[in-house]
Amino acid sequence: MPILIAENLWNFDEVVVGQAGPNTKVTIRDAHIATYAQVAQNPHSLYLKTSTKKMAMPTMVLTYAPLLRDEIAQENGFIALEESKTARRQTPFAKCEARWFHPVYAGDTLTGSRCVLEKYVRRGSQFVTFRISATNQDQLLVAQYDYTCVFSYVKGQRPPPSASASITPSPASSTVSYIAHPISNPNNSAISSGLLPIGHLLIPLTVSESQEVMLRKNEFRLAGKHKPSNIHTDEDFANKNIFAGMVNSGPATMSYVDQFIENNFPLGSLYNGGRLLLRAITPFRSGDTVTFSGTVVDHRVLASLTVMACQIKGYNQRGELVCLCEVDIALAIT
Fold first, then answer.
1. Per CATH, the architecture of 13-160+184-332 is what?
2. Helical packing angle, 30-39 and 211-219, nearest 10°
3. Spatial distance between the Cα atoms of 267 and 46, rounded to a whole number of angstroms
4. Domain ranges of the chain
């Protein structure tokens, strides 16, 4: 019989608030910004053109300053559950709240730091929240996000939909109708004056997910080691985990919401102090088509900014709620 070597696993009980991982440093290039937009299925031409001042999609922070759970575990003398040889399992995405403070451009060098922010038990399930911060070469905090993982899911697996479920064929690519708002003159009068009324319906966005897209997203890394096997790429491993099959990543869904926001508001509007909170409700699986829609629910003036609060929901072709988002758009008053 093979001899099993004891592993110092980073289980929920061993997670301690304040445990930190190593810092990362990434210099953003034009090609990085373009590639991220491509794997995020964002066809906006501004991300593809060569520019001395090309702006990154806000949710790119999850790539240039990634979570890196396994590195945090290793830094504190443990083996992450995803890396275990004897009891391997996933600690998947539950929710993420991101905040932005300064734009990120090609040529910027971003330092990422990461630590355990909190741990809690809710309705029997165990959750761990990590805080990741990104500062630029001028020591300015450009973005910060709190990423919550499920360490133990009390309800067991969430099986995939049955073959008899009604599924609408996925389009070959997402179709987007863009509002004209170039970065050099981003505000139109209605938005900059805070005049979009409460209840205003935003332009919807439909995105289809495929295994090819999941693989491309997994391959694109700017920090941390490559992981060829996870619940987004390895069917055998995915079938043994919470969602009983391959699903896309939480950061991927956040990038689609990012695209939805730029379809309705000036490019870069999240960078003025915007916020995006995404809660995952139903797994976004390969072959699914999700339509994101939203409503303005509040607007207020804060210093020199008009802050517009929106609620965004994503539903799949079966009518299941995939995600629920709260978004604050901060626009300069002109």
1. Roll (3.10)
2. 160
3. 10
4. 13-160+184-332
